[in-house]
């Protein structure tokens, strides 16, 4: 039986009514979230009817000094098994407050202030992982981002080898066609059709319309993705949806 999967960068608590409307409309079997506030876990558990698994990445001053932000996974009224949180930079024991710097007139997050983690689990025999790679100024491929991507690739490959296959979803902050994206795509299949040229929702993103396909559905050859589509009006990033099954 194929799994209906949705992956969304929800931009913390800014768009919760929009996100809730999407979930009620699409009814995914598995929901993968990036930039999720720990304080909103109960909100999503009430929507989905299951237990949400959360891995923190940073503290964000815009959400209160004690609020953690990270990635999460939750199944609809079902149990995720073999849940694992593998940090490839930083650790769960040393979560810091995010800091920013100015570059070329733009405010950018300091990647060293943000931990990076791959949260993975199994649902109905299928292995799925979610992550959020570090952001870079203007979508450039930096040496630090490529180093992080290499660590992520090795973790994902190990998960795929152990489970047989893997779907890796999330916000990779690496536009398609640039070096970091190409590094990931050299090891996993890019599951988003080429006619999609951006996963940024210009109506909600602070930068407006920018042609960056930065959110991804990467998978190993033993998995098949169907009905891949992007939905606008959900968050500052488009919501990604697909049906996942074994090939």
TrEMBL record:
- The domain of life is Bacteria
A Pfam family that the UniProt record links to this protein = Exo_endo_phos
This protein's record includes keyword Ion transport: no
Domain Endonuclease/exonuclease/phosphatase: start-end pairs: 9-201
GO molecular function annotations of the record: endonuclease activity
* InterPro entries tied to this protein: Endo/exonu/phosph_ase_sf, Endo/exonuclease/phosphatase
- Is Hydrolase a UniProt keyword of this protein? yes
Alphabetically list the UniProt keywords.
Endonuclease, Hydrolase, Nuclease
Name of the protein: Endonuclease/Exonuclease/phosphatase family protein
């Amino acid at each position: 039986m194929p799994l209906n999967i949705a992956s969304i960068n929800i931009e913390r608590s800014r768009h919760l009514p929009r996100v809730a409307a999407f979930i009620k409309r699409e009814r995914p079997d598995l929901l993968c979230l990036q930039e999720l506030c720990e304080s909103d876990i109960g909100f999503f558990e009430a929507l989905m009817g299951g237990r949400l698994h959360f891995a923190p990445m940073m503290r964000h001053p815009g959400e209160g000094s004690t609020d953690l932000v990270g990635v999460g996974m939750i199944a609809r009224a079902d149990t995720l098994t073999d849940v694992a949180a593998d940090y490839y930079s930083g650790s769960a024991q040393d979560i810091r407050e995010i800091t920013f710097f100015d570059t070329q007139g733009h405010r950018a997050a300091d990647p060293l202030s943000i931990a990076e983690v791959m949260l993975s689990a199994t649902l109905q025999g299928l292995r799925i992982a979610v992550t959020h790679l570090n952001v870079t100024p203007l979508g450039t491929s930096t040496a630090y981002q490529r180093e992080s991507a290499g660590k992520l690739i090795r973790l994902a490959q190990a998960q795929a080898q152990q489970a047989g296959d893997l779907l890796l979803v999330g916000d990779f902050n690496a536009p398609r066609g640039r070096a970091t994206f190409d590094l990931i795509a050299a090891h996993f299949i890019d599951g988003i059709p080429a006619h999609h040229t951006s996963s940024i929702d210009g109506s909600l993103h602070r930068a407006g319309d920018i042609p960056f396909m930065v959110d991804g559905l990467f998978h190993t050859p033993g998995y098949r993705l169907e009905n891949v589509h992007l939905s606008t009006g959900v968050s500052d990033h488009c919501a990604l949806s697909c049906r996942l099954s074994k090939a």
